[in-house]
């Protein structure tokens, strides 16, 4: 990992927590804060299909409480910052429910998720 400093790593972790905790808490504001407007999110669904989401569909689903319906008592959310290079980064976010591989971009001094690939834990 390129040494970007603790401040970048902390900000990336905070973005990932906004994404996960916002989802489970039904907090659309946190979800919106975490996502780049051009988000491309894909996941494997039963039968081998691919589920595709955008920032809008994720924010709307969060506001509708979809994540709250999938919450568990011990979320066990963990964020590992895998690499940071200038204004791009990758991280692995895991919980009792999901695993996400995310790519982030820093724009206007804020880290936001621009790509995500997920599966059920």
In whole angstroms, how far apart are the ends? Answer: 25 Å
Number of helices: 3
Shape: globular
CATH topology: Nuclear Transport Factor 2, Chain: A
Mean pLDDT: 95
State the helical fraction. 25-40%
Identify the CATH class: Alpha Beta
Biggest beta-sheet profile: 6 strands, mixed
Q: Write out the strand line-up for the largest beta sheet, numbering strands in chain order.
A: 2-1-6-5-4-3
- SSE string: HHEEHEEEE
User: Tally of extended strands?
Assistant: 6
What's the architecture, going by CATH? Roll
Number of domains: 1
The proportion of strand residues reads 35-45%
| Low-confidence segments | none
| Radius of gyration over all CA atoms, rounded | 14 Å
Class by SSE composition: alpha+beta
Characterization of this structure:
- The mean pLDDT is 95.
- A six-stranded mixed sheet has the order 2-1-6-5-4-3.
- The radius of gyration is 14 Å and the shape is globular.
- It is an alpha+beta fold.
- The protein has one domain: Roll (Nuclear Transport Factor 2, Chain: A).
- The longest helix has 20 residues.
- Helix 1 runs antiparallel to helix 2.
- It has three helices and six strands; from the N terminus they run H-H-E-E-H-E-E-E-E.
- The two termini are 25 Å apart.
């Amino acid at each position: 990992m390129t040494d970007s400093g603790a401040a970048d790593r902390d900000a990336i972790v905070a973005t990932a927590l906004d994404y996960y905790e916002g989802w489970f808490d039904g907090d659309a504001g946190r979800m919106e804060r975490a996502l780049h407007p051009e988000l491309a999110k894909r996941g494997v669904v039963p039968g081998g299909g691919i589920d595709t989401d955008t920032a809008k569909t994720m924010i709307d689903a969060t506001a509708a409480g979809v994540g709250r319906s999938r919450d568990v008592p011990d979320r066990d959310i963990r964020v590992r910052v895998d690499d940071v290079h200038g204004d791009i980064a990758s991280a692995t976010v895991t919980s009792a429910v999901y695993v996400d591989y995310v790519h982030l971009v820093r724009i206007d001094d804020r880290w936001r998720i621009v790509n995500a690939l997920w599966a059920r834990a």
